[in-house]
């Protein structure tokens, strides 16, 4: 039966820094296919590929392998680390005490974002960072009010008890990527860093600007992690029903399910790690990163609406279509949005940005309560009226100026459907004055 993976991208390859001698192969879908960690300098580039919905029948046994056959360092992380976080900043695993939750500092958040951009430019790890943020947030249960029991974006994914969930296979490598940034900016919470990384990855891949806010508070211990089983499968018997069951629990609707699925425009799936896809296609035989796997789209590191176009056509055997992809054009309600996004990229970008921002806030506790906005929208500046611009020639008034004139007109009683009332006394006096002037001129 398919293991659960929530909105991820397949074929993550592992970090370039030497890991402990034991190697672990990342899986494209909720599966750890081996119990060893692969040291590879070029492999990290292809971390840009893990499946958003994926599966493997060997996941659970592989997880046991991870626990039982690890080296002394891995054992130290996964066996003896009962109340500690994963630390991977030095290339080795270590354990540290969980810090008290602190609000994120806006200046450090902005600096961390620039470091993430540089990481994306050099490692091409967009999909795995998106997956990291989504898996931390995607455990949210709207039916539970208490924090952090309700799950959601609270940084709990940094603890090994949650990392060992089948759906999170390989995400330790995402932590490896961003831990140096966390070490550099101590006043950025894990919960914020995960969401900052995901949103930045979307934008840097050519996607829409996500209206994010920050200030998320971290959980402080592994006991606060959600139970396993809150994330979706890749190939359930009834894909549409399964997607609705999982995403409705988060408070998301059909439009948001389809929009979020569109992020499959990024990444590749590797069959040896996930059980899905081909070993190699004409689109994946060359980098970046380690070649191989099967992508959903031709340009699998570009965020656009091509995912919906290719899923609809199903004409290219070198492109991947999972059961949870195909159902978007089979279910009547999903199909309305999938058809729309295949034709209109602007509509897809708008809906995706809104859905991504909503997902990133699920279950979060903010300090300050209203959150921190790094890029507030600038207030529109009123246009200064210059008569000379409109005194000659035919010049169209700007919308802002039209609105200003309309407001002034309505302020003295006018409206589009009701002209201003006439001042009859003034009109009579003007007529008399004009007649007097004409009489005088004629008399002369």
Automatic annotation (TrEMBL):
Transmembrane segments: 424-443
Compositionally skewed regions (Basic and acidic residues) per UniProt: 269-285
Domain Plant heme peroxidase family profile: 129-413
Subcellular location: Plastid, Chloroplast
Gene Ontology terms, MF aspect: heme binding; L-ascorbate peroxidase activity; metal ion binding
Similarity-based family: Belongs to the peroxidase family. Ascorbate peroxidase subfamily.
Name this polypeptide is given: L-ascorbate peroxidase
Gene: LOC107460700
């Amino acid at each position: 039966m398919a293991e659960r993976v929530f909105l991820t991208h397949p074929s993550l390859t592992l970090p370039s820094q030497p890991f402990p001698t034991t190697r672990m192969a990342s899986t494209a879908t909720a599966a750890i296919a081996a119990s060893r960690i692969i040291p590879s300098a070029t492999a990290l580039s292809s971390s840009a590929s893990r499946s958003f919905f994926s599966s493997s029948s060997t996941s659970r046994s592989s997880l046991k392998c991870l626990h039982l056959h690890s080296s002394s360092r891995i054992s130290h992380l996964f066996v003896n680390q009962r109340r500690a976080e994963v630390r991977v900043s030095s290339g080795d695993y270590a354990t540290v005490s969980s810090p008290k939750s602190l609000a994120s500092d806006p200046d450090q958040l902005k600096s961390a974002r620039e470091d993430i951009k540089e990481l994306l430019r050099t490692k091409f790890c967009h999909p795995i960072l998106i997956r990291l943020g989504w898996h931390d947030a995607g455990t949210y249960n709207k039916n539970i009010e208490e924090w952090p029991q309700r799950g959601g974006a609270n940084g709990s994914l940094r603890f090994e008890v949650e990392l060992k969930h089948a759906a999170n296979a390989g995400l330790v490598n995402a932590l490896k990527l961003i831990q140096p940034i966390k070490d550099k900016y101590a006043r950025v919470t894990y919960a914020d860093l995960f969401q900052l990384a995901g949103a930045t990855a979307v934008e840097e891949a050519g996607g829409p600007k996500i209206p994010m806010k920050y200030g998320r508070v971290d959980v402080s211990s592994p006991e606060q992690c959600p139970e396993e089983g809150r994330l979706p499968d890749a190939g359930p018997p009834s894909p549409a029903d399964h997607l609705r069951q999982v995403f409705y629990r988060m408070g998301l609707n059909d439009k948001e399910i389809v929009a979020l699925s569109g992020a499959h425009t990024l990444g590749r799936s590797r069959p040896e790690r996930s059980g899905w896809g081909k070993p190699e296609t004409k689109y994946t035989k060359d980098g970046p990163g380690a070649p191989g796997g099967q992508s959903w789209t031709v340009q699998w590191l570009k965020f656009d609406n091509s995912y919906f176009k290719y899923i609809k056509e199903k004409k290219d055997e070198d492109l991947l279509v999972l059961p949870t992809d195909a159902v978007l054009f089979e279910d009547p309600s999903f199909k309305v949005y999938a058809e729309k996004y295949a034709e209109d990229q602007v509509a897809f970008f708008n809906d995706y940005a809104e859905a991504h921002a909503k997902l990133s806030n699920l279950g979060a506790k903010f300090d300050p309560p209203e959150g921190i906005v790094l890029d507030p929208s600038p207030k529109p500046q009123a246009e200064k009226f210059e008569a000379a611009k409109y005194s000659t020639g035919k010049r169209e008034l700007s919308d802002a100026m039209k609105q200003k004139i309309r407001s002034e007109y309505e302020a003295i009683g006018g409206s589009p459907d009701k002209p201003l009332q006439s001042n009859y006394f003034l009109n009579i006096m003007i007529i008399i004055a004009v007649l007097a002037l004409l009489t005088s001129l004629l008399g002369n």
